[in-house]
UniProtKB/TrEMBL annotation:
SUPFAM superfamilies, sorted: F1F0 ATP synthase subunit B, membrane domain
Topology versus the membrane: Single-pass membrane protein
Subunit details: F-type ATPases have 2 components, F(1) - the catalytic core - and F(0) - the membrane proton channel. F(1) has five subunits: alpha(3), beta(3), gamma(1), delta(1), epsilon(1). F(0) has four main subunits: a(1), b(1), b'(1) and c(10-14). The alpha and beta chains form an alternating ring which encloses part of the gamma chain. F(1) is attached to F(0) by a central stalk formed by the gamma and epsilon chains, while a peripheral stalk is formed by the delta, b and b' chains.
Function: Component of the F(0) channel, it forms part of the peripheral stalk, linking F(1) to F(0). The b'-subunit is a diverged and duplicated form of b found in plants and photosynthetic bacteria.
NCBIfam families named in the record: PRK07353.1
UniProt-recorded name of the protein: ATP synthase subunit b', chloroplastic
Stored Pfam families: ATP-synt_B
Length: 160
């Protein structure tokens, strides 16, 4: 049994050729508009919103990271300035301590030199006094010897 399809095909061909043109405004146009809007909504929900959310989250993360980095940079700069000031103060204190120590050492040296000079003067005075004492003793001894010798010479001269 074979079915003859030719009258059906001819009927279809004649119904599609009626009123046609390039733009046929019938029930398919609103259907296409609805289909386009549905596709737009579906794409917006499934694709554009998640992508825009990811991009917004990324922008927020970058903004937060930059803000945090800026805060850390400011804090680091403040700490650097603080440490530089402390270092400068420490150096100044160290220089003051060194200067003070040098002055104290100079004073100690000058006191020691004065003490040494006084000791040297004392030794010279003592030596001078001892030499004077020895000189006087030597002179007394010489006088007594001269007196003895002169007495002996007298006795020899007068005695002969």
């Amino acid at each position: 049994m074979m079915i003859n399809l030719s009258p059906l095909v001819a009927l279809q061909a004649s119904s599609t050729e009626v009123e046609g043109g390039l733009f046929d405004f019938n029930a398919t146009l609103p259907l296409m508009v609805l289909q386009f809007l549905a596709l737009t909504v579906i794409l917006n929900v499934l694709f554009y919103k998640p992508v825009s959310n990811v991009l917004d989250e990324r922008d927020e993360y970058i903004r937060n990271s930059l803000t945090t980095a800026s805060a850390y940079l400011l804090k680091a700069n403040e700490l650097t300035k603080k440490y530089e000031q402390e270092l400068a103060e420490s150096r100044k204190k160290a220089q003051d301590i060194i200067k003070k120590s040098q002055q104290e050492a100079q004073q100690i040296v000058s006191v020691k030199i004065k003490e040494a000079q006084l000791d040297a003067e004392k030794l010279v005075t003592e030596a001078y006094d001892q030499l004077n004492i020895q000189k006087e003793q030597a002179l007394k001894t010489l006088e007594t010897q001269v007196d003895n010798l002169s007495d002996q010479i007298k006795l020899k001269l007068l005695g002969n």
